[in-house]
Structure formats: structure tokens, C-alpha cells
Amino acid sequence: MFPDFHYLFQSLFGIDIPGLAIVKTFGFFVAMGFLFGAWVISKELQRKKEQGLFQPEIITEEIGKPATSSELIGMGILGFLLGFKLIGMFLNSAAVGHDPMGFILSMKGSWITGIVLAAVFVYWKYSSKKKQQLPQPKQQRVAVYPHHRVADIIFIAAIGGFAGAKIFNAFETWQDFIADPIGNLFSASGLTFYGGLIVATIALYLYARKKKFDFRHLCDAAAPALILAYGIGRLGCQTAGDGDWGIFNSAYTTQPDGSMVKSSYQDYQAMVTKYPNQFMDRNLNQITPNKYASGPSWLPDWIFAQNFKHNVNNDGIKIAGDEGEYNHVLPAGVFPTSLYEAVACILLFFVMWRVRKRFGRPLQMFGLYLIIAGIERFLIELMRVNYKYNWGFLHPTQAEIISTCLVIAGLGLLFFYKPKEKTETV
């Protein structure tokens, strides 16, 4: 696995650049997911605007004014933070690489670059406003459509999504959360997608209502972006080895050097006996389930199992002779469910992109997304370990409950929802 770009470049190109450790692969893929998602939703919002499905918000702008004190102060603060923290991270890359989040939340940084960049930002804002300054400032009315607000939409989705993902993950891994609430809240791992989806949807509904544009068409525009961003984000989970893997595949065990080999079920049981704590789920207080599934010789083993060597959480057993920061590996192979989800969701994005113009009512596209996402996650849950609720003869996981609800809601939107007003083709 590649917990950061230092490991990635060292493994792929044989180049040892310790400073690259500050760039974490999980964060990189999450950022890529947001960027590609923003591009997709922007294209869809523009298409819907051309169809007349959105009415603009008319705002009044005053142009030709010099920079205000609040604008200069704001740019100064932004420049200082970027110089103090971001450039400070590169200047102290050897130390920061071990704990970037700890560095960001600390008082450590580069004061000199912070002050210099603050001055640069203030001067840039002042000079740019000076060039546009008019003898007499004037007001103009501007039509603002939803595709002009993509940056705001993505920002709200990111904040709401992260908060929701952390909250729902805390309920899924309650024992870990109680043991270290602050560490769990601010760690890069431990994100529950459905929690993020629910909270982000509520936040965007309130935003759309405030800006007076049709939330239903925003949902349809966001549907293909959501499935794509989720798939790309899952590549980050897979690459970093953030713990979002499946149950053990007892056909594969780990050697002392960290390599994974095909084994008998007896070999797997021997590993369970040797490392009992590694096969115990802390939240469920039970031995993690396993399934024996040996892949055919003509297919690579990593499709069926991976032991996530050098995983970002340092889960598992120590690799013999490895004194690096990420020097642990799982004692046996697990099903790489994050890889399965990444491939499935990226392929499903192309399907949704192809059929997006075929629906005649608002929320049908979003309904299709809910069905696809719900079924995909429900199937993946069959290979993952999660807390199960005790409902008599039913023992569903949190994700299975939400998946079922999403599929039902999606079917309702796709086949039965009929808006009161007549709407043009979406």
C-alpha cells in the first residue's frame, strides 16, 4: 500500500523523497473526487440552465470601489495561514510527514513565510482593486445561476459530508470513538459515506432554498457526480489501506517479510492461534468472520485478497526488519472491498452519464442513483465487518438499513413521483 506519496514514488519509481510524505494518498484521491465531481455537476447544471430549468438570482454588485479594510484583512489572514502552515509543512517535511494533521492543529509553522505571504496577498488584493477603481463606483445587476455557485455547493457538500461521515462512523465504531474521541474525529480515516450523504443533502437543501433554485434539479445534476466522486474516493481508501476492507479470506496468509501467499485453511487457523488479537474485532468483541476463496491461477491474487502491507493505520503485525513509519501488515488476506467499490462506481458513472438525458421528470435521475448506490453498498456489506443490530430474527448493519431505505426511496422517485407542475425534459 501507499499511505503517502513518499511510499508511492519509492515503490513505483525507486525515488526516495522524504518530503513527499506530507502528501497523503487518501487525501489526494478525496480531493480528486471533489474536483471531478465539481466538473460533472457544473456541466449538468449548465445543461439544465440551457433547458430553462433554473431561474437566475438577480443580485446587485457595486463595481469600481477600492479594496475595503475587511477585504484586505481577510486576504492577509488567508495569506498568513497558507504561508504559516502550508509552506511551513514543506519546510519541515521530515517532521510533518509523520503527523500532518497534528502539525496543522498545532501552533507550529513558518512565521517568516506566513508574514511574507500575508503581505503579498494584501498587496495583490489592493492593486487588483486599484486597477478596477472608477472615479464614481456604480452598481450593476447580475444574473447568477446555480452553475455559477458550484464552488459554494462543493464547499457545503464537503463540510456537511465530512461532519456527517464522522458522526455516523462514531456510531458504527463506538468503542474506538469512546477510547479516543478527539483522535477519531480528526483522523483522516473513519468516514461513513451514508452519514456524509445524508448531512450534505440536508445542508444543500437549505442552501438551495436560501438561493431560491430548484433543489430537485440540483439532485439530478449531482447524481452522476456523486457516484463518480465516491468511486474515486474509494481508490484513496484502497491505496492508503485505511481499514475499510472486507472480512478475512482464509485462503491467503502473510509471511514474515510481509508478502502474501496462498495457504490452506489450517495455515489460516494457525495464524489465528498465533495472533488472536489481530483477528478480534474490537467493536463487536468477536473473532472476525472469514471465507475461504482461493482464486484461479490465471487471475492475480490481489483480486481476491490483499494484506495491505504498509497500511496507513498500522493495523496488523510488524513486518520483519522494517523500521519505517508504516511497517505493519495484516496477518492474512482480506477481501479488498474498497477496490471492488471503486471499480463498480466508476463504471456505473459512465452508465449514468449515458442515460442522464432520458428521464422526463425531476428526481428520476437521483432516484436511479439512490437505487444503484443502495444495491452496490448492500452487496459490499456482505463482505464487510460491521456492527449488527439485533432485531429479533433480523441482524442488519447500519449501512444495510440505510441502503434498503435508499433503494425504496429511489424506486419511489424513479417510478411514482410526479411533480405538481408541468416540467420540461430533464
TrEMBL record:
Keywords associated with the record: Cell membrane, Membrane, Transferase, Transmembrane, Transmembrane helix
MF term (GO), any: phosphatidylglycerol-prolipoprotein diacylglyceryl transferase activity
Keyword Cell membrane: yes
TM region(s), chain numbering: 20-41, 72-91, 103-124, 150-171, 191-208, 362-380, 400-417
The keyword Membrane is assigned to this record: yes
InterPro entries for this protein: Lgt
One example of a Gene Ontology biological process annotation: lipoprotein biosynthetic process
Pfam families membership: LGT
GO CC terms of this entry: plasma membrane
Family affiliation: Belongs to the Lgt family.
Protein name: Diacylglyceryl transferase
Organism: Taibaiella lutea
Lineage: Bacteria, Pseudomonadati, Bacteroidota, Chitinophagia, Chitinophagales
